[in-house]
Design a protein that fits this description.
Strands 1, 2, 3, 4, 5, 6 and 7 form a seven-stranded antiparallel beta sheet that branches. 36% of the residues lie in helices and 29% in strands. The longest helix is centred in the first third of the chain and has 24 residues. It is of the alpha+beta class. A hairpin with a 4-residue loop joins strand 5 and strand 6.
Length: 169
């Protein structure tokens, strides 16, 4: 976050510098108010670029074995460009390298999920996936209660990712 703030300030100085250079090259015929406008436009462009490229930067930096299974996008009226290009602000990655198969029940796997969100801390959750029944058990309440199974079908991205990785596909 701090590095992005520094990048926005540097972009502002660069934008102001470009406008000052254009003013000199035009023989001082450009109005001086274009300097802060150029700085502001460069700062806004840097902030938008940072927001819009967060997902691709973060997903490409994932360690080996973490596979993105699901993404979430957001549009907001204070970010009007997101209505044209929705911004991916969260995603779920599955640790496919460390799937654990149940020794008693075939096609039942324990998987670690990692929830990434823009400006949010990463959260890790462990789930069970039944590849034969195409269902998953989301985390329990932490009180040693039995897992609650949900029939999600083969369209569920998390079940697909775990089962495809477990079968070696």
């Amino acid at each position: 976050m701090f590095v992005e703030l520094i990048a926005v300030f540097v972009a502002g100085f660069a934008g102001a510098g470009v406008m000052m250079l254009l003013g000199k090259l035009s023989g001082n015929r450009l109005p001086r108010w274009l300097i802060p406008v150029g700085a502001g436009a460069a700062m806004l462009a840097a902030a938008i670029s940072s927001e819009m490229s967060w997902y691709s930067r973060t997903a490409s930096a994932l360690p080996e074995g973490l596979e993105v299974a699901q993404t979430g996008t957001e549009t907001a009226f204070w970010r009007p460009w997101t209505y044209i290009w929705p911004m991916t602000d969260r995603f779920v990655a599955v640790d496919t390298e460390n799937l654990r198969e149940n020794s008693e029940t075939a096609s039942l796997y324990m998987a670690d999920l990692y929830f990434f969100g823009r400006w949010k801390p990463t959260q890790a959750v462990e789930i069970m996936v039944d590849c034969d029944g195409m269902r998953r058990a989301d985390p329990g309440l932490g009180d040693d209660s039995p897992p609650v199974w949900r029939d999600v079908g083969d369209e569920d991205a998390l079940v697909q990712t775990v089962c495809n990785s477990a079968s070696g596909a």
